[in-house]
Specification:
Layout: H1 2-13, H2 21-47, E1 49-53, E2 56-59, E3 63-66, E4 72-75, H3 86-116, H4 122-150, H5 162-187, H6 191-196
Antiparallel strand pairs: 1-2, 2-3, 3-4
Transmembrane segments: 25-52, 92-114, 126-150, 162-184
Protein name: Transmembrane protein 37
GO molecular function, one term: voltage-gated monoatomic ion channel activity
Amino acid sequence: MTAIAVQAQWLHAHRRPKRSFFETFIRSLIILCVAIAVVLSSIAVCDGHWLFAKGKFFGLWHFCSIGNNSALKCTTNLTLANVKGINIGMTLARSMVSLAVVVAIFGLELLMVSQVCEDVNSRRKWSMGSVLILFSFMLSSAGVLSFVILLRNYMSFTGFTLTYWCEFIATFLFFLNGISGLHLNSITFPWSRIRKT
């Protein structure tokens, strides 16, 4: 009987704590928004053409100019854009936004795993995933800012392409969901306290 009682106490102490529907819904919404941000950022990085100004397309990977027959002439030789420091600047910008996508994917995976495999470490996984999403925000915003500073002489509000705005929205979503994830974890009842009671 003693062994059965001990086993019953162990099962009671290690049972999965129940979450409210509202908390589960918010966590699922955060995961969905992060997934959308990853898709938007991936599209923006792969396309790379972020700015159209003075008959030229400036991108992360290519520089394009419009010829006499209205055909685009694209090249990976960015020095033809005649912008000072464009090679180093674009290398820095595309490295940061590409790394932001990779970090965000790992963060998203941690968020999903924390919800699918609920255990004692779920809160820690959720926090780590949220921190990675915030790190993605910092990398992405640094890449976008580098691009804007580099091409400040060509910059215009109407010159930015749809893929640039995809990256801009993705950066905002990374920030919003990273902060929301950490805040949600802090206001919900810590699971570690449940283990001690």
